[in-house]
UniProtKB/TrEMBL annotation:
PTM-bearing positions, type 4-aspartylphosphate: 56
SMART domains referenced in this protein's UniProt entry, alphabetically: REC, Trans_reg_C
Domain OmpR/PhoB-type intervals: 130-227
Keyword Transcription on entry: yes
UniProt name for this protein: XRE family transcriptional regulator
Keyword DNA-binding: yes
InterPro entries: CheY-like_superfamily, OmpR/PhoB-type_DNA-bd, Sig_transdc_resp-reg_receiver, WalR-like, WH-like_DNA-bd_sf
Record lineage: Bacteria, Pseudomonadati, Pseudomonadota, Gammaproteobacteria, Lysobacterales
Portion annotated as DNA-binding: 130-227
GO cellular component: cytosol; protein-DNA complex
Length: 233
C-alpha cells in the first residue's frame, strides 16, 4: 500500500537535523517545511496547518512547550504534534503531553520510526472524522471518492476532485493559490498556470447546473467554498 503524501512542518533549530529530516521525508514522498525558531514555526502552523507537526522541545526564544500550548489555544483544528527532544525524563514527557503533544520521540531516533509515528498520528487524527464531508448540499465521500450536490452525482476529473477535497477540508478557510499548487503537485508543478483549467472544469461540474455558486474566488488571496444553504437562526 502506498504511503500517504503527508505535509509535515518541522520546527527545529539544529540545521544538520533539519537537512537530514528533509532528505528522509522526501525519500518517503512527504512534503516538508521547516522553521528554525518557535515563533516563526507557530505562525506557519496557524497559517497553513500541516498534517503533522514535528516540534523540538528546546527552541530559542519560544520553546516547544510554549509553541504547543499556543497552537492548541489558537488553531481552528487539531494539528497532530510529535515532540522531538533530547530529554527523556518522565517529567519532561508528562509536561509535553500536558501542553498538548500527541506523541513523543527522544533523540537520537531511527528515521523509519519517525516516519511510522507521523503516519500513525495523521491517521489517528482522521480516525474520529466522518468519511463524508458536508457543506450545505455538497457531500464528499472520502471513502468512495464520490461527490454529490443536492442529491446529484457530480462527474469530476481527478485533479478537480482533489482541488474540491482540499477546499472542503479547509472550509471555511480560504486556500491560497500556492497552497493548492503545493497540495496537488508538490515541488514540481506543471508549467504556466496549473490551476486555471482544473478550476474551470470544477466550476462547470460544481456550480453551472445549480442556482448558487459555491466555489468563490477571493481576489488577491485564493479560493474557498461557500455553503449553498442559508444559516439557521
Amino acid at each position: 500500500m502506498p504511503l500517504p503524501a503527508l505535509r509535515i512542518l518541522v520546527i527545529e533549530d539544529n540545521r544538520l537535523l533539519r537537512d537530514n529530516l528533509q532528505a528522509l521525508f522526501a525519500a518517503h514522498g512527504f512534503h516538508s517545511e521547516f522553521a528554525a525558531d518557535g515563533r516563526s514555526g507557530l505562525q506557519s502552523a496557524l497559517a497553513a496547518p500541516p498534517d503533522v507537526l514535528v516540534l523540538d522541545l528546546g527552541l530559542p526564544g519560544m520553546d516547544g512547550l510554549q509553541v504547543c500550548q499556543q497552537l492548541r489555544a489558537d488553531a481552528d483544528r487539531h494539528i497532530p504534534i510529535l515532540m522531538l527532544t533530547a530529554r527523556d525524563a518522565l517529567d519532561d514527557r508528562l509536561r509535553g503531553f500536558r501542553s498538548g503533544a500527541d506523541d513523543y520521540l527522544v533523540k537520537p531516533f531511527a528515521g523509519e520510526e519517525l516516519v511510522a509515528r507521523c503516519i500513525a498520528l495523521s491517521q489517528r487524527h482522521r480516525a474520529g472524522q466522518t468519511h463524508v464531508l458536508r457543506i450545505g448540499s455538497l457531500h464528499i465521500d472520502r471513502r468512495s471518492h464520490s461527490v454529490h450536490r443536492d442529491g446529484q452525482l457530480l462527474e469530476l476529473h481527478q485533479t478537480s476532485h482533489d482541488i474540491l477535497l482540499a477546499l472542503a477540508e479547509a472550509w471555511p478557510r480560504t486556500l491560497t493559490r500556492s497552497e493548492l499548487v503545493q497540495r496537488l503537485w508538490g515541488d514540481a508543478p506543471p508549467d504556466s498556470d496549473p490551476l486555471r483549467t482544473h478550476l474551470y472544469l470544477l466550476r462547470q461540474a460544481l456550480d453551472k447546473p445549480f442556482a448558487t455558486q459555491m466555489l468563490k474566488t477571493v481576489h488577491g488571496v485564493g479560493f474557498r467554498l461557500e455553503s449553498d444553504e442559508a444559516p439557521t437562526s
